[in-house]
Structure formats: structure tokens, C-alpha cells
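Hey team,

Filing this mostly as a record. A colleague (T.K.) asked me to run one chain through the structure pipeline before their review meeting, and I want the input and output archived in the tracker in case anyone asks later how it was produced. No errors, nothing strange. Just documentation.

Input sequence:
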Amino acid sequence: MDIVERFLKYVSFCTTSDENTGMTPSTPGQMEFARYLAEELKTIGLTEVSLDENGYIMATLEANDKSQMTNDKCPVIGFIAHMDTSPDASGRHVKASIVKAEERDFIDPKYAGQDVIVTDQTTLLGADDKAGIAEIVTAMEYLIQHPEIQHGKVRIGFTPDEEIGQGADHFDVKAFGCDFAYTMDGGAIGELEFENFNAASCKIKVHGLNVHPGSAYHKMRNSMRIANQIILMLPRWQSPEHTQGYEGFFHLIGMNGTVEETTLSYIIRDHDRTLFEYRKRELEHLVKKINAEFGEGTAEIEIRDQYYNMREKIEPVMHIVDLAKSAMESVGVTPIVKPIRGGTDGARLSFEGLPCPNIFAGGENFHSRYEYLPIPSMEAAMKVILEIVKK
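Output structure:
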């Protein structure tokens, strides 16, 4: 099975994650996909294939370089990707097809002439991160089929629920047994990232009082109107659509309400740890202002840290970033080092003792019905893996 066939098979599985189920994996489709992957890894010849009750897969490509097999100081390298897709758009019944880049006006003109995988624009594609999985599996299969390529021990890991910030919750770093790893979870060709947002989720619950509108004067408290007051108190220029580069934001991702009760769901992001902490305090301050105006207990807030900027953990081992740069250049890809305006499993894993920069998977317009994947980009990512392993 070539890399394109493999990817198209993977996107046939619906693996949308859901932060509201309280399960791991959060949706049954992820476990169905995990079982398929585990069997595939055994079929292509990987060893130590494991699938645990939480949907985490690990496997080993044994070393075939005699000098490395007998050298305890030789690093064990890992490659990681996630199985779930974003709940921002449907991942069910994906209808993927291959078109020329110029046939779709939402594809960047720089890909002109290339074969690109798209959907029918009713669902996302799932290149985030099934492209990463396809690249890793195809690279491992290639190395098994070409024993003349000398390499050390390689470990691979596939995780559930990355898109809802829970991908590293049950990842056993000790069992993975790597000196360092790479997530294949970046975007466009050439992207190489070792710094990301500090991230938190926030839920604000607003309590109102409903009475008949005919007798509501000075009695009714409409929780939706109070919640809207909170929304308007945050500066609109500190939202995703008005920020770029290292600029952080508050992002309202969901609201659900009645007169009696309204819930606002935010994500908080900033590369700078001090500004990140300030943003959290600002939301807490707004809730206090609401309670001062409408009465104690009108609004409740819950903030949960999700991950932190991995830069502080990568900088002491920058040689692993240099290794990825060199691998890209060896296959004709120009490295584009930039901060992630998001996060990966690697961010959390870096803080758990597994330094884990992020390498491009090749897709664009992630989390969107207009997501697409240039095939040459996916093939280049697979070649980068091979180069890293060979070095």
C-alpha cells in the first residue's frame, strides 16, 4: 500500500474527538481506528506493538545497524501522531478525491500543478493528523523493506484526543523509552516548530432568573444578556482573527444558553508565560465584576491549564532541531522555523521528559471543510523521517 492509498484508507474512519464524553478515547471511532492501526503495524513487520485500554498505540522498529545495536549511548528516536480529528468540522463520511491544485480556488497557488487531496467540502479531510500517521507508517514499512538502510532503534506512538487537549493524558513516556521524539503534526511543507502557545481552557457559567416577561420589571435576570456583557468586556482585537505571530488571544469557542443559565467556553493562548497568566487573571477579574454588579454567585469560572510552551524544554537540546533541519535540507525541503499558533502532544510530552519538536505533515486549512493535502508534501514528510532515522 503506498502512502496515498494508506491515507485515503485512514480518513474513512470517523475519529472526531469530543471533550464532553469524559471517556478516553473520547469517541468509539478512535478505538476502532486504533485497532486497525495496531494490526497494520504487525502486518508490516514492526515489533512490540501494543494498544492499551485508552487507545494509545506504541510499536518498535528494531535497530539493524550493528554499531548502534551494541551501543547503549545511541539515541532511540520516536515519531508521534494523533488519531483524532477536530470537532470544529464533521469528520464523518469523508469523501476524498485527488484534484490538480488549480482546480480549487481555496488551494494556495504555490501548489499549482500538484496533485492535491481534498474533500467535497462537506467535511474536514483529516490530514490533521492522519497524514502524519500515514507518513510514519509508510516510512517504517520502507525501512523494513530496505534493510540496507542502516538505522538505530525507532519507536512510534499514536495518541487519541489531541484535538481536545488530552492526547498526552495517558501517554507512558517511560514505556515509550525514547531519548527524543518528533510529532508529525505541523502544517505546510517545511514547517519545523519547537515553540508553541501556553494554553488553557475556560468555562464561565452564568446564572439568571426567569419570570414571565409580562411581570419581569426589576425581577428577571437574563443570563444570556449577562453572558454577552462578559463577551463585550474582552477586547475584540485580542481574538484569533486579529492576531498573528507571537500574539496571544481569547477565543470564544462555544456558547449555550437560556434565560436561566448560559455557558461560555473559551480557550486562552499566549506564547509568553507572564502574559498567559495575566490573561487568566483578566477573565477571573471580569467574573468578579459581574458578581459585584448582579450579585455573588451570578457567574462562576473554571480555568484548566492544557499545555505550556515547549521552547524552554527544547532549547537545552537544540541539536534535535538541527537534526530535523538537516534532514529536510537533504531531501530538498527548505526548513521554515516558526512558532506554533496552537499546540501538539509534543508540548506536554516535552514537559514530561520527552523533548518533542514538531515537523510538518503537509496539510493546509486544518479544522476546516476546505482542508487539503498536497501529495508531494506528504511524500516529502515521509522522506524527512527516513533521513532523521538514517543520521
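Quick notes for T.K.: The radius of gyration is 23 Å. The chain has a mean pLDDT of 95.
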